[in-house]
Amino acid sequence: MPNPEIELVVDAKAVIGESPLWCKDQGALYWIDVKAPALYRTEIATLETTPWSLPSDIGGFALKSDAAGAIVALRNGMFGLDFASGKLAKLFDAPFDSRTHRFNEADCDSNGRLWIGTMFDPNPYARSAPTKGNLYSFTANGGLLQQDDRSLLHNGFAWIPDGKEFFLAHSREGRIYAFAFDVERGTLGRKRIFAEIPNALGIPDGGAFDEHGCYWCAIHRGGRLHRYAPDGRLDAVIELPVQNPTMMAFCGPDLRDLYVTSATHGKPGKPHEGGIFHLRTDVPGLARRAYVC
Questions:
Q1: What mean pLDDT is predicted for residues 8-34?
Q2: Which of 79, 134, 146, 174 counts the most CB atoms within 10 A of its CB?
Q3: C-alpha neighbours within 13 Å on the C-beta side of residue 282
């Protein structure tokens, strides 16, 4: 795939910019900074950006069904965020020791369940050997449910076009897995390895599908996007102007506008590291569901 023109659209300088989410009915891109914790909304037409500061690391989010706020997964629990006031209402305590773990990665399935991963990310004063954390799902009525997968670092959530397989990455292992998925019940089935990324190249971070059933993956530390064919073959590579891409979202009327978040990790890097970038793709992508049920 020829490298497309890539433009910087928000020079965010995010510590860990993450989780871009396209909201079609608002013409807006929502995204987060995990470590300078905040949720942001960027109007695509004007690039005007509105922040909501948060009190602890944010690992993921989804919009409430009334669009008046969001469900946010913070280090110390699940909260409802009201956009008008900026106030938080705790829904659940974190189901892990927040001194050593936090939520990481979140995405809604087609029925509106919010799937949320975990990351071993100890605070500076914690003493702990690396320990895997659980995968969870959340709904307003069902609450927070533990699912059958554990990882040191969950990433890469995405569903194939018919919704019958759920993809996620165990980033520290360098593996992308595909799970059989029951859309109606919201349950995981058989698990298989879809692709592996050598550690020297980087780690698999955020993912997304296009309408041809190809899986896109941000290669963190590798400065590139990978596009994998449905059989797991590496189909295309897009080189990026930053070293630490984190995730991407297909946006716009034809879903061919790809927005990519990135991270600085609080260190000097390439110019505009931590920014949000835009490129046009040859094929339309699949839009993520923005609203949690």
A1: 97
A2: 79
A3: 9
